[in-house]
């Protein structure tokens, strides 16, 4: 039974890092007889250039038909000045929303081989392993109404709406609890319930879902405190579940604690674990085309794909081990390089993972 | 000409730390003949206990009549279970909004004597001196409509509104530029203009205000990136200006970079520089009544009061120098204590600052 994988290289370093991840994916495909069939399309700026919009209808249909999607990254200065309605990010937001990819998993994992890369003291981050579960299709990102208009006095004003329904909160809370259950059994729900109506409902619904997970220890934290605690004592966290905007902010903060955002993959899942997989980092236009970008986050996104969309735990683990092995061998792209290691380019790094697999 | 200072000790450690700050304020009052007349009232949980509401009308009137307000901190577990409408934080939000205290200054300053306290590597934070300018009376904190209700299908939903008008943005942007002008001449405006309508207006208005400040270098940064950059390379920032919610999150993150949030004061100013001054830290109910809380953030809030509301630069500097001197002497409360220093209590620390002044 064949499985369709849609590959969206995107912009900037996207095509380079995706090419390496595809090598790994193809090898896993053969080795574990996964029956994957790959096809390619465009998203973001590349789609603007090809189709005139950052997500073409035909691409969306292909994405719907696929069993999983591998994405590079989108955006870049080339498209900074265009009509905001067709900016590259709009394509990303639209594919998330149209495919119902509400469950965004963003691990912040410190590789022991890269402990020095963190700006935090080694004892604060050694062994760091947090999973941020971010709600990805609701909240202020998609809330209506949103508008920019003139007031009676001639002044401009603009507003956004932050809505959450019980069912939206319930399903992401479940993802949080399910993840905590197979990890450290601790879930911290982050909100701003001392100020926001939506957060008050968030907290109430998370409490209700908790009844089905007596084995998971639940705590609540205000978002400002969470931003502090991630700096103060990040290892206190196991799984964090939070809304779309807070998750955007906290997952970037958490990823930077590791000092090596070039290593961090992500998954965005729908209700049936169909998913889109992409590195946490952006399209890094400044180093695009130079062959120096770190492909490991994208390669690890393939591992997440095998794990979450296809249940291929053995193959997923094998890829993670191969990545760990090349780090042990001392191979480093520029972003994670330190004294005594061997600096390699994107392709050499990809080849090394393939060889290790 | 006498000046009225309203003192609101608040909850938890509030009364203890405020008592020490008042000693310093009274000494400065005599020494520099400032003509301050102090009166006291309650805010937060203490006000709930006394008046049944977290901010009584008569307290609000006293606050309006005062020339400046010194606040301890509000909140605690004692009032966690009460009606959300009269929770202690509501009093804080109401006094900010009713007095029009839209300009919130939150410095994140690393004291060289306390460099070890940070969880970040010394080279990353040595000399750190950031000022966060947070909009404090608008945005999603006060936006209407906000509501919790039942949908037609019987499910609950709740929403908040994030509005900003041109004039609200303009006045806080000016505060940001004015502060940058007398500091490092760099202003970073933080928003989420790739997603939010309110952020798009924010960015446009900040650009307009920038025309009046050609001597200040303006940059824009998305909030998720800002949360990352604060961890990666915090010293790249001089002044950050941002909205109410982003400012809440980023100022807490930035303050924790110093490792000594017990040292950080804040000011909340209206259009005429009338202000409310309070430590950045909370009411710390767990250590309340033990005489071990750090009063320095509150003492430094007095210094900010003298500087911003009364233009008493000499007196303000003298207080800062006195604080620096007691740190040089090796005196530390528990929160900032390290090996080789002398651990002191709240009162002893306050007395030491008074002696140094
Ligand atoms: C590009 C942007 C719209 C996006 C987001 O805010 O969700 C990005 O920051 C992310 O976190 O994937
Ligand atoms: C107590 C709370 C409502 C408040 C806020 O969110 O503004 C606090 O976190 C702060 O930053 O002063």
TrEMBL record, chains A, B:
Pfam families: Iso_dh. Substrate binds at residues 96, 106, 134, 224. Binds 1 Mg(2+) or Mn(2+) ion per subunit. NAD(+) binds at residues 76-89, 282-294. It comes from Azorhizophilus paspali (Azotobacter paspali). PANTHER family: 3-ISOPROPYLMALATE DEHYDROGENASE. It is an enzyme of class 1 (oxidoreductase). Its main location: cytoplasm. Keywords: Amino-acid biosynthesis, Branched-chain amino acid biosynthesis, Cytoplasm, Leucine biosynthesis, Magnesium, Manganese, Metal-binding, NAD, Oxidoreductase. This is 3-isopropylmalate dehydrogenase. Belongs to the isocitrate and isopropylmalate dehydrogenases family. LeuB type 1 subfamily. The record marks 141, 192 as: Important for catalysis.
